[in-house]
Predict the structure.
Amino acid sequence: MLRHARHVAAPARRLALDRASRVLPMSRAGVSLLSPRAAPLSTDVSRWMKGPGDANPMIGVFVTVTVPEDVREEFLQVMQADMDESRKEPGCMRFDLLDQGDGVYSFYEIYKDSDAMALHKTLPHYKGWAEFKKANPAVAQSQTVVNFTFLKE
């Protein structure tokens, strides 16, 4: 069962801590997870947590965009395809889309290393997202990106 958390402190660390319980960090109350069929989670966090000294630490990105109402359905279709196909990539550990209301959406992606993230950016489903942003400059201009690296507990 998914629950909403009402905290934003240390999002990457919070993701690592909450992974087994399926509590998702949210930037404000009332945010809903758009894809309840998220990839299964392992309770063995040691298999995917790496330390800062590791050669290839697990990395992630947290993206927030504002989507005008007239392109919202297209956005959701593009993101659903990106999520579904990304989750099939061997190096993608997590990809979820969050609806914050009022046309504001966030998504986060977690990859086993920088090579896996680089590969992701060459695939057709990622290019669909890039083309959507190019065709919708208001979405591209609203985008904020936070990159993060996992830390060992």
Remarks:
- The mean pLDDT is 75.
- Residues 72-86 form the longest helix (15 residues).
